[in-house]
Amino acid sequence: PDVPMREPALAASAMAYHPFHAPRPADFPMSAFLAAAQPSFFPALALPPGALAKPLPDPSLAGAAVAAAAAAAAAEAGLHVSALGPHPPAAHLRSLKSLEPEDEVEDDPKVTLEAKELWDQFHKLGTEMVITKSGRRMFPPFKVRVSGLDKKAKYILLMDIVAADDCRYKFHNSRWMVAGKADPEMPKRMYIHPDSPATGEQWMAKPVAFHKLKLTNNISDKHGFTILNSMHKYQPRFHIVRANDILKLPYSTFRTYVFPETDFIAVTAYQNDKITQLKIDNNPFAKGFRDTGNGRREKRKQLTLPSLRLYEEHCKPERDGADSDASSCDPPPTREPPPSPGTASSPLRLHRARAEEKSCAADSDPEPERLTEERSGPALGRSPAPDSVSPPRLTEPERARERRSPERGKEPAESGGDGPFSLRSLEKERVAEARRKDEGRKEAGEGKEPGLAPLVVQTDSASPLGAGHLPSLAFSSHLHGQQFFGPLGAGQPLFLHPGQFAMGPGAFSAMGMGHLLASVAGSGNGGGGGPVTTAGLDAGGLGPAASAASTAAPFPFHLSQHMLASQGIPMPTFGGLFPYPYTYMAAAAAAASALPATSAAAAAAAAAGSLSRSPFLGSARPRLRFSPYQIPVTIPPTTSLLTTGLASEGSKAAGSNSREPSPLPELALRKVGAPTRGTLSPSGSVKEAASELQSIQRLVSGLESQRALSPGRESP
Amino acid sequence: PDVPMREPALAASAMAYHPFHAPRPADFPMSAFLAAAQPSFFPALALPPGALAKPLPDPSLAGAAVAAAAAAAAAEAGLHVSALGPHPPAAHLRSLKSLEPEDEVEDDPKVTLEAKELWDQFHKLGTEMVITKSGRRMFPPFKVRVSGLDKKAKYILLMDIVAADDCRYKFHNSRWMVAGKADPEMPKRMYIHPDSPATGEQWMAKPVAFHKLKLTNNISDKHGFTILNSMHKYQPRFHIVRANDILKLPYSTFRTYVFPETDFIAVTAYQNDKITQLKIDNNPFAKGFRDTGNGRREKRKQLTLPSLRLYEEHCKPERDGADSDASSCDPPPTREPPPSPGTASSPLRLHRARAEEKSCAADSDPEPERLTEERSGPALGRSPAPDSVSPPRLTEPERARERRSPERGKEPAESGGDGPFSLRSLEKERVAEARRKDEGRKEAGEGKEPGLAPLVVQTDSASPLGAGHLPSLAFSSHLHGQQFFGPLGAGQPLFLHPGQFAMGPGAFSAMGMGHLLASVAGSGNGGGGGPVTTAGLDAGGLGPAASAASTAAPFPFHLSQHMLASQGIPMPTFGGLFPYPYTYMAAAAAAASALPATSAAAAAAAAAGSLSRSPFLGSARPRLRFSPYQIPVTIPPTTSLLTTGLASEGSKAAGSNSREPSPLPELALRKVGAPTRGTLSPSGSVKEAASELQSIQRLVSGLESQRALSPGRESP
DNA sequence: CGGATTGGCACCTATGTGCGAACC
DNA sequence: CTGGTTCGCACATAGGTGCCAATC
Predict the structure, then answer these.
(1) Among all residues of chain A, which has the CA nearest to that of B155?
(2) What confidence tens digit (pLDDT) does each residue in B4-49 have?
(3) CA-to-CA distance for B337 and B390, rounded, in angstroms?
(4) CA A504 from centroid of its chain's CA atoms
(5) Most buried one in A261, A663, B349, B367, CB count within 10 A?
């Protein structure tokens, strides 16, 4: 019932900014929608065969439309749609029926990515994240600002990182190329924010960071880190779940937000020197590798000489002093994307002559696979300095072109009236959001470049961007959908909002917590003190083109000792499948080239000005409770999901590309080989799956045995 | 009903090891029991006037007897006794009635102090804890090992630090002297372990540390740190609450454990050089102050000379190498008490000639106040080195003597049969416990000094100890009680176990969370990784004399931003009084002089051997479910507790020394001036209270406003 | 003046970073 | 040999310690 209402608005707004059209909702099968991004997860879906049977009409599907389609499919199947969303009644109504948490709380979460500018800088170059055996943090820290939550209700915030496609990459000739089919996907782990559960008020008080989430390539990791495959592309996802207990996670509705600009390729060693330099210039822990203002690398090599180097080591104070001069000196939190014109300008330029030339030559020429499109897009040209001058960005004309294109997903079938879902509503919402961001930036003391906001136009820099980076296969179509919210989204993601799951509590316990959850216990460090997150980029708000990416979200939870220790979740090893294949789609403003406080930037900002001006950090501000960005969708899992066999059946019926015959949920969730969407054949990956199963089992047993040994709890 | 059963066992065991007598349970008033240690907390007690009216018969009361007395008093007053404890039915019964957490879960918590030997070393000298504006950790880290919890039930573990008496101290002539009445007590804060709530299984998996708890003297602290008065004596307390939500804390039963050897005097600067040296020798973070094996301080001063010092600074590697030589190099977690004979021997000796002579002269000569008794006790004599040779310890004969003595607290009235409560049972339990510890030590790789276990005899070193360090006033009697469990208790505390509170949920919300909770959010650091707690002392098991101390425990919770942020607890500032004055008494093995791996120590260990041999880290091991160490007691608060006036009444009726007329819970809980137990006059502290109230209010408002600014959440 | 407190300091642990050689 | 991985390293942040001179 709810979903349909929003459909029009979403489609309309999308069309206003994007050329992509959404296919008729009814025609869009959930299977494709859910399985695209993470084919391996699909088996977990509990959608009725009928709803899933339909093939994916067109890849270039608007995210919103997809969401609507999913909702429609659910409704079609007789599943209930969430009671949340659609009904604008204010939050204060809550007081009347404030039962136990959970019940009928009215909220309308809004999520914005912090340090968006920084992310955009990386995204333009093709973000790389190092993965090590011991676990590595993500550098542009994944941090979001949340608003619109019910103050008193309790929420669990978590994130996970899913495969963006099923390809393996290689960095060749200064650019990322597809190098074959993806390797078997590692068991996915959900990282529950250690503060969970906490009230909406608490979550909204300050940005929510996931600093403790670590990436690793160690398949035997026992820390609960996220295991990734090197040379593969991934997409971080953020989830909001209204639940007052981790144990209730299974019964709760997930609202998932995806920020396309945060995707990255996992590597064991940096491939693109520009990325390296960007990391060095912005990550405080890499300060040691920054140049003192001279020709960075060159100088460093020189200093490597016995005499000089020795001297430098003994003259720390001197270096530090010189270091502090520039702009980059903030702690872990992110800082200003452009380290500052003065010293920052050199970074990318000086680093590596060879690499520089090559990488910059990429331009708008699409890679073999569309996934890299956006990276080459903006055509950084020869200006290696990300901040020096705004690189070639799409002009208004270009943006317009993008908006036009989409032809599919016209108007989602069942989507009924408009009300809050009308284009108008969407527009207002977006404008309001932009205003908030703008104000927020000011409040945050990021006074620099007040006129920067308008640069939302930069969105275009990612024009080629919107299309390819997520699901390159069956899901590639959704990529276009990402752009649905294009330019003005500016960090404000769109998401599908599934309704409550109808399954009773008993079912869950019966199934057991087959999925695994990963989380860092509140334990140890960082908690006490009080360092204020320096987050310099918090209000970027300059977000250019916004793109929406929808990804399937089964429940590849991976339970770590920390999770167990702090959250009290039993670890039944492999027992059942997480029954919540809820999938959400989030559209966020995408790529925005660095925007130094140059007059040029200011001018550009002024030009686009009116569009992105609004408070960000802003306090309370009246707004629609159910913006068109949200579409409640209910996707109840079927019992079949509880067994591998059934899961396979589900995926088959849905035409998903997942073909894991494994009885273990993890396996079912794993992606093996190419999606071959619509295909049901278990293909030849069975063998692989078996071996993987073994490794996973080892992993799990390791985790279990470690529970007693893990350092976690309050270790100094 | 339950309580009585255990009485005999407790009394018997106590008698076996301690000369102190316990008065007839029924004759012992809860008022004295509860109010003694923290007079200021007493007002919060909800005991019926009748039960509390009775005066304390005899100060030299065994802890167990006291507990029994409390239980008896409660029963006498018609209060219900906890349904927990006494009924040995196994844990598996839980499965039958496993309702929502909380209900009728059968557990029998056992708590042992980690690094007991270290604590004992400090305790013998008179532990000092530095308090600073920015907050200081406790050095011997307060860490406990918990067992006997229901695996699946959820528990909240917390601790607080309460005034040990109402005196102010001064360090004069190398010893601590009472220097007048205590200053107004600061608002007490409960520090909830950040992992709370978690399942019993999780808590039992590894030692529970409270590293994040910090001490401060900053009355305006906004971090949620524990505020203490310098030059005052304090007693840390550990609490176990079975509850699956922090919000339910108010309705839950508290099981409180007190380890007398962990008491300390708060200082802004170390007074006793021996303490300083002990800290330096054992705290990894103070490595920089350790001597390279030479005359510590002397050498350092020499090096302070321009040339030398400069050299040293440039030769870190050299120093570090030398540093690693000794034994003490473990991370934050505790290490072996005796840093190692070789290098450790010098520490106390070389430090300060002047202080050395004086401090060592103290001997067994009791200080003006009995509180310092135990400190002088063991008569370290002239051997300043805590580890060099085992100080005068009780020989087997002496231990026997202790066992004989106790005549009081024969058998608590209602205490029915013996079963698990018989001396035999107690003995078995203790032996089992010792065995566990022994094994644990081995497993922990603490292979050193395998024969050390027997040194439990050291208990005696604390013989004078048991008596004075806690409540010097009305509670002094209980001190003796602490020794009740003497030698073999070895870290296994005795505790009074109040039953469930009869107050309905509604009442709480009506009152609001007047108490404040302090806790470090799971946020930030430490969580991720997996460093295994090095806890070298975990299995000490040598625990000598055990002493039990009972203290009143209202609910002086102080809510910090972290607490709020991570636990989702609303902060109603001052609204009501925490209705749970449940008081428990814990008896733990006390003082044990350092036990270096010397042949002498080994020999001693061999002598006492059989008594303390047993697994510690040990896996599952059959045991009594309701050991005599535990005595369930229900002490339901009266509504009167909710108002200051009533609280005062309560204290008055109980004859407590607290006389805070303040309407605010915090004030009521504060200790002002001397206890003058039995006195009801609000005395002249009203004025003080008023001013304090103001400061507290400021503090609270500060905390609230800070919630949004606090760094807490996941800051790098 | 002397006891208590404070703040800057050197030194330490712990951990995050990219580098570059070694390894495969 | 190449491309990818691993490991120790130097250097960074973050923060825990006692020292000591200055201050109250």
Answers:
(1) A568
(2) 333 333 333 333 333 223 232 322 223 222 223 333 332 222 223 3
(3) 12
(4) 30
(5) A261
What mean pLDDT, rounded, does chain A reach? 48
Q: Is-contact B644 B43, C-beta < 8 A?
A: yes
Average pLDDT over residues A566-585: 29
For B475-501, b where at least 16 C-beta lie within 10 A, e where not — what string?
bbbbbbbbbbbbbbbbbbbbbbbbbbb
Distance CA B393, CA A689 (A): 64
How do beta strands A630-631 and A495-496 pair?
parallel
Asked if the model's pLDDT at residue A713 lies above 90, the reply is: no
Chain B contact for A149 (CB, 8 A cutoff): no
Amino acid making up residue B132: T
Chain A 259-278 contacts with nucleic strand D (CB below 7 A): 267-269, 271
Higher pLDDT, A530 or A247: A247
ipTM for this model: 0.54
H or E segment to which residue A179 belongs? strand A175-181
pLDDT tens-digit series, residues A562-575: 333 333 333 332 22
**Cα–Cα distance, A77 to A47 (Å, whole number):** 8
- From CA A23, how far away is CA A410, in angstroms rounded? 5
Q: What is the pLDDT of residues B638-688, one digit of tens each?
A: 212 112 222 222 232 222 332 222 222 222 222 222 222 222 233 333 334
Which of residues B295 and B157 earns the better pLDDT score? B157
- Alpha-carbon distance of B408 to B62, in angstroms, equals 7
Over residues A653-698, the pLDDT tens digits come to 222 333 222 222 222 222 222 222 222 233 333 334 334 334 433 3
Residue B270 lies in a domain: yes
Taking the Cβ of residue B157 and every Cβ of chain A, the question of whether any pair is shorter than 8 Å is answered with no
Q: Quick one: A598 exposed, middle or buried, by C-beta within 10 A (0-12, 13-18, 19+)?
A: middle
Highest mean pLDDT among A424-433, A470-479, B32-41, B214-223: B214-223
Which residue segment(s) compose the domain that A134 sits in? 110-285
User: CB < 7 Å to strand C — which of 165-184 in chain B?
Assistant: 170-171, 179
For residue B189, being part of any structural domain is answered with yes
pLDDT above 50: residue A284: yes
The enclosing domain of A187 has a CATH number of: 2.60.40.820
* Cβ B321 to strand C below 7 Å: no
Give chain B's length. 716
pTM of the model as a whole:
0.54
pLDDT digits (tens, 9 = 90+) for A68-112: 334 343 333 333 323 333 333 333 334 333 344 445 778 999 999
**Domain assignment present for B431:** no
> Within window 118-137 on A, which residues have Cβ closer than 7 Å to strand C?
130, 134-137
A263 in a domain, yes or no? Answer: yes
Number of domains in chain B: 1
Residue closest to D17, CA→C1'? B286
Residue of A212, A708, A709 lying closest to B527 (CB–CB):
A212
Distance B276 CA to C13 C1' (A): 19
> Which residue has the closest alpha carbon to C3 C1'?
B170
Cβ–Cβ below 8 Å for A711 and B530: yes
- Evaluate if the CB of A309 falls below 7 Å from strand C: no
Q: Which of residues 7-36 of A touch B (CB under 8 A)?
A: none
For the purposes of burial, counting CB atoms within 10 Å of the CB of A683, is it exposed (0-12), middle (13-18) or buried (19 or more)? middle
Q: Which of residues 119-138 of A touch strand D (CB under 7 A)?
A: 132-133
Q: Are A612 and A456 a contacting pair, CB within 8 Å?
A: yes
The answer to whether some atom of strand C lies closer than 7 Å to the beta carbon of A216 is no
| Residue A674 half-sphere exposure toward CB, CA atoms < 13 A | 11
Burial A141-158 (b: 16+ CB within 10 A, else e): bbbbbbbbbbbbbbbbbb
* A131-159 average pLDDT score: 95
